Amino acid sequence: MSATITPTMTDQLIQDENDHVVQTYKRPPFVIVHGEGSTLFDSEGKPYQDWVAGIAVNALGYNDARLTQAIQAAATGLIHTSNLYYTAPQIELANMLVEKSFADRVFFSNTGAEANEGAIKFARKVQYEKGTHDKTEIVCFTGAFHGRTMGAVALTPKEKYQKAFMPLMPGAVLAEFNNLESAKAAIGSKTAGVIIEPIQGEGGINVATPEFLKGLRELCDQNGAVLIFDEVQCGLGRTGKLWAHEWTGVTPDIMTLAKPLAGGLPIGAILMTNAVANAMHAGEHGTTFGGGPLVTSVAKHVVQRISQPEFLAHVTEVGDYLMERLSEINSPIIKEVRGKGLIVALELTTDVSNIIEQGYEQGLLMVNAGTNVIRFVPPLIIDKANVDNLVDKLTMIFSAT
Description:
This protein is an alpha/beta fold. The chain has helices spanning 7-20, 53-56, 65-75, 88-99, 112-130, 150-154, 159-162, 180-186, 210-223, 274-277, 293-306, 309-328, 353-361, 384-399; strands at 32-36, 39-42, 47-50, 105-109, 137-141, 172-175, 191-196, 226-230, 254-257, 268-272, 334-340, 343-348, 364-365, 367-368, 373-376.
């Protein structure tokens, strides 16, 4: 039905959205109805090459036959039981994530923000169990984005996200990203945990240096603090390794996941060591929907595919090619190209909103990461021909700017 929406129906849908949906999103004036591979189509049949992937979610692209089969098979079984009971898919997914990571145990949630909320609680509970009840501070960093719930937004130091919702969770301490001296000043005897994205997403695709992450690991060890890596956006294959922190050789105590984990279905996960998990007891944290049998069945399929060496090699190859081709664009408004794998930033000297608007006209879906950065987080199946098409169209847009 959705693929046959007429232009008149499109106008009515947009009007209905304006009338009945809370206006917290600024959307372009078209309605997406279906997709194929790395291309989306609107209700008038116009194709858009997708460099957003639902904000780093749709790793396997659109209308993937094997993913569809996995969803259909999962839907014939249990959809929901709550966490009052054992279900096999949840346990099997946990086994898979533990096998493929540093972790000993997993807690499932529904979103990345929920996963980060849980990580905050777990870090504080570790200290409580030790009897150090005054160790409640959580250190975060400039440029961070950890979510919009009240705990996570307290660790997301941007006035736009925080000002209207004061007072926020107490105990958030801010340090400068990639500045070890600043981190040393922030991490101390009252620090329960330190949370950082190995590659910042919303903050502008800023890559934490190996030296910085190693320094944080040492500071956490020295102060008995829990080190949390937020890999909600940069994890699960996006950098060309399964986990972004693998490039640095630094291992956290907790890692949070979400976006691509179930191929577009809502799921989050908190991976942790036994030292963290053993601080939590029955009834101290929970979720009605987290880790349900349908979504975890699908997530098993996604993790199995993304973790294949040939899949990760493809991400690295195309990601390197993307950065190379973007660097070839000759425009005075381009300041820097940076990133890793298929999480890449094109930083400009100007506001990128107009570039993104022109991209719609050229059949490109792009998203910003702050005022001056275009963020490229496409489906991980994207290929070099897609990169060439992107660069050709961006070159044309820049030449007219």
